[in-house]
Amino acid sequence: MKSFIAKLLKSVTVMTLILMACTVPAYAEEELNWVEGGQKVDVGTNLAELQLGSDFIFLDAENTKKYITQSGMELNGEEIGVVFPKDEKQNWAVYFEYTKSGHIKDDEKKDIDADALLESYKEGTKEMNKELSPENQLFVDKWDVPPFYDNDLHSLSWSLLAHDNQNNGVINYNVRLLSREGYISAILVSDPENLKKDRIVFNNKILSQFNLKKGQRYEDFDSKTDKVAEFGLTGLILGGAGLAVAKKVGFFAIILPLLKKFWIVLVLAVGAIWAFIRKKLGLKNEQSEQQPTQLEQQEQSEQPAQDQASERSKVNSHE
């Protein structure tokens, strides 16, 4: 992780780093209300709930927005929560956002053209790079995880591999959980080196414990009263803008705010805030020393994401 941060420093001013490292913990200690794991937490307003494991800490919508602002990142107004690991050796975060776009029909679930989408990303990025300085350019390489739809959970997942002009890897893992009136974005922020093991934690301990509340689930849609979104699954992958718009505007124009928010500022902010988190929660060094063994056990028992989702859906159907 240190090597990854060192690379990112090339594209972030020293002053920005100093300000973040010095001010984020101070602001957090004064204002942020951290919720410790081992309990059920509400995500959004009467929207969803998460059984938060004891290995994690959580910020609700209000405090997530405070944290993002204090970290120098831009708000989009849709933030409803964020989860961090307690273990300082795990430098990842999961952001939750809710977009009330209208009910998204999944008619395209069997017709998602991953190759066409990838080409659209590449073409749009190439055009947008012409208007950007070299340090802000991004180059899309390939799918890390091609888009796939889980029919039981009504969720759409994918992951893209990209790099900057200095060949530094950029990657994230996206999940969109369709709801009655829109969708919840669950975005795993990690780095290429640790994404695989972080995704195991994300799938097994976060998503598997996340549920939409009754009345907000996809199947609760009422065609007589509820609005329908103007785009489908393909448009959702392209930021809710639709394939034609994405080709015209460019993927980078759509994803740039997320990159600034998640890939540059957030990674640094996570490192800067760890001393505060450990001090506030009274964490012991022994806890982090045990974590590698736990991750190894999780990796050995991991099932494909689609299988996990299917099993969870069956459990929910009996509730």
**Major sheet size, sense and barrel closure:** 8 strands, antiparallel
Report the principal-axis shape: globular
Alpha carbon gap, first and last residue: 41 Å
Specify the helix fraction band.
40-55%
Helix and strand string, N-terminal first?
HHEEEEHEEHEEEEHEHHHHH
- Quaternary organization: single chain
Overall pLDDT score: 74
Number of continuous helical runs: 10
- What is the topology, as strand order, of the major beta sheet? 1-4-5-6-10-9-8-7
What's the β-strand tally? 11
Rounded to an integer, what's the Rg over CA atoms? 19 Å
Beta-strand residue percentage = 15-25%
> From the helix content, strand content and strand pairing, which structural class follows?
alpha+beta
Low-confidence stretches: 1-30, 241-276, 283-295, 309-319
Keywords:
42% helix; eight-stranded antiparallel beta sheet; alpha+beta; disordered C terminus
How is this structure best described in words?
The protein is of the alpha+beta class and 319 residues long. The chain is globular, with a radius of gyration of 19 Å. The longest helix is centred in the C-terminal third of the chain and has 31 residues. Helix 2 packs antiparallel against helix 3, helix 2 crosses helix 8 and helix 4 runs parallel beside helix 7. It has an eight-stranded antiparallel β-sheet, sandwiched between helices. Strands 2-3-11 form a three-stranded antiparallel β-sheet, with no helix packed on it.
